[in-house]
Each structure stands twice: as structure tokens, then as C-alpha cells.
Amino acid sequence: MMTYADLEREIDRGTRPELLRGWVLTVLDDVAEGRRPLLAVRHPLGFTCLPVERAGPDGICVHAWPAGPPAGQPTTSAMHSHSWDLLSHVLHGRVRNELIEVTDAPVDPAWRVYEVHSRGDVDEMAATDRLVTAVTATVETHSAGDSYALRAGGFHTSEVDRGQPAVTVALGRTTPGACDLSLGAVDGRSHRVRRNRCDPAETARMAREIAQLVARG
User: What are the helix and strand counts (H, E) for the chain?
Assistant: First the structure.
């Protein structure tokens, strides 16, 4: 079993992608056969998350974007920032990250900033007083075999092309005092969103389907 530190080191080195692929395939096989008791989550941002491990501030997940339309849509927007540093390695397909420049604009805003407080399967979307504009500063595309990092607090979107599935292994390390944020409607209000957690049979099916993509590279 590779630890967070092991995976971080291998992704940083970038010299043994087959080791990462083999580890993920072993994890997916364990999930599919019920040896690793976890449940997949359909994330509001359009991907499926397999939460492999959580140890203190560190988390390891496998993220998979479907070929078809996403099962859910965010109630705010796809533009968001993490409370944690992300290090990700693409195992299949192609992921497009748009890095967003956000500027305070209390007079003529385009968006309101929402704080995202997660408690179990419920996300509390808390409308703040911060009003902003947002423009795309950089677009980065990462294909199978590539790795990328997104720092806590940086607004971005992460998407795939329609009909082109993608799979990544994602490492997250929480930044003390930081908060997950999302951009939403200026006239929106605080609300709650419940994440769709799959049952064991559906999780096993998804693990097998994701494994087929990872094996193809």
C-alpha cells in the first residue's frame, strides 16, 4: 500500500508512471471486489470521487469524469477554490483547467463569493458579502501521463471535453484556516446541497469501469 508521501514523491519525480497506474488499478480492484469499503460520491462539479484514504490533513482520491453529461450541476458555478493544495496525476483522457482571476467589484459585480462548509454529505453554501468579477487568466490542458498542481485559494475550473472521459489520482493537503469557495449568483442566497453517495453495488460497477479506462492509459 502506497502512502500519501509515496504517491506525492512519485508524482513529483514523474519517472515511474506505471507504478502509479499499477497502484490505482490495485485499489480499484479492491473496491470492485469489496475488499476496500468505500462508497463513490457523485460530486456537484460533474465528476465521480472515490475517497481512497483520509489521514489528518491529507486525502487521496480517484476522480473520474464521465463521457456523457455529468449527473449533477453546481448550484453556484463551476468556478471555485480549494481550502487545500491539490497535486493530481492524469491516468486517462485529458483535463482542462482554467485559472480564474477574481477581482473585488462592489459597484458592478458579476458574481458573489460563497463559502462552502462540508459536513458529511451536505455542503452548506453560505453567501458572503464579497462581490467580484472573474476572468480566465490561463488555460492549461493536461493529458494522460501529465501531473499538475493547484494551490489552495486559487480560483479555477476543471473540466473535460464532452464524450471524452478522464481519470486522475488526486492528493489533497488541507491548509489551516482556509475555506472552500465558489462563485455564484449576485442575488443568490445561502442554501444546502446534498452530495449523491452511491451504494456498494454501484460503487463496485464504477470501480470496474474506471479500471478499464486506467488500463488503457
Answer: 3, 14
Q: Mind listing the pLDDT tens digit for each residue in 84-143?
A: 999 999 999 999 999 999 999 999 999 999 999 998 889 999 999 999 999 999 999 999
Q: Output the nine-digit C-alpha cell for 125.
A: 453554501
Cα gap 14→10, rounded to integer Å? 6
Residues 206/197, Cβ–Cβ less than 8 Å: no
CB contact at 8 A, 95 and 67: no
Cβ neighbours of 174 (radius 10 Å): 15
Rounded distance between C-alpha atoms, residue 124 and residue 109, angstroms: 23
Closest CA to 197 of 41, 14, 62, 86: 41
User: Is 0.90 surpassed by the pTM of this model?
Assistant: yes
Q: What is the DSSP string of 138-181?
A: EEEEEETT-EEEE-TT--EEEE--TT--EEEEEEEEEPTT--EE
Helices (H), 14-127: 17-32
Instruction: For residue 72, give the C-alpha cell.
Output: 449533477
Residues 6+ apart with CB under 8 A from 26: none
| Domains in the chain, CATH or no CATH each | 40-198 (2.60.120.10)
Report helix, strand or coil for 79. coil
User: How is residue 30 written as a grid cell?
Assistant: 479492491
